[in-house]
Amino acid sequence: MAYEHALGKGRAFPNDKAKNDKAPHFRGTCNPEGNQKEISLWFTLNDDVDPAVVEKIKSSVKSISVQLQEPYNKDSAPKTSASNDKW
Fold first, then answer.
1. Buried-exposed string 22-52: b where 16+ CB fall within 10 A, e elsewhere
2. Separation CA 26–CA 8 (nearest Å)
3. Gyration radius of the chain's alpha carbons
4. Could you tell me which residues come within 8 angstroms of residue 69 by beta carbon, excluding any fewer than 6 positions away?
5. What is this structure's pTM?
6. Do residues 68 and 8 lie in contact, with contact meaning Cβ atoms separated by under 8 Å?
7. Could you tell me if 36 and 8 are in contact, meaning their C-beta atoms sit under 8 angstroms apart?
8. Which helix or strand (DSSP H or E) is residue 40 part of?
9. Which residue of 31, 41, 55, 85 has the smallest Cβ count within 10 Å?
10. Strands 26-30 and 9-14
11. Which long-range contacts (CB under 8 A, 24 or more apart) does 30-39 make?
């Protein structure tokens, strides 16, 4: 049985099976809504960066942790009162 992530969590690892430069840099799994999904991740470098940097990054990163959540909504965020500040 494969590892199952907690709800809203996931992990991606360097894609060492990539056969071309359009393949994802990282692949993994996550659990967005109670069922496991595969994820693919690419990163984009600035035009002036040497492409060899991609391989250096992939070989340096062990894994990427993923957390999925609802978008932040400023209107529904808890309000804090200035009178509670102790500073």
1. eebbbbbbbbbeeeeeebeeeeeeeeeeeee
2. 18
3. 19
4. 8
5. 0.68
6. yes
7. no
8. strand 37-41
9. 85
10. antiparallel
11. 30/5, 30/66, 30/68, 31/4, 31/5, 31/6, 31/7, 32/8, 32/68, 33/7, 34/7, 36/2, 36/4, 36/5, 37/10, 39/10, 39/12, 39/66
SS3 content of the chain, % helix, strand, coil (to 5): 15, 25, 60
Whose CA is closest to 69, among 41, 16, 31? 31
Tokens of 68: 């999925």
Instruction: Tell me the mean pLDDT in the region 79-84.
Output: 61
Residues in the chain: 87
pLDDT for residue 76 is more than 60 = yes
Which two structure tokens, joined as six digits, stand for 23? 């393949």
Tokens of 82: 């200035």
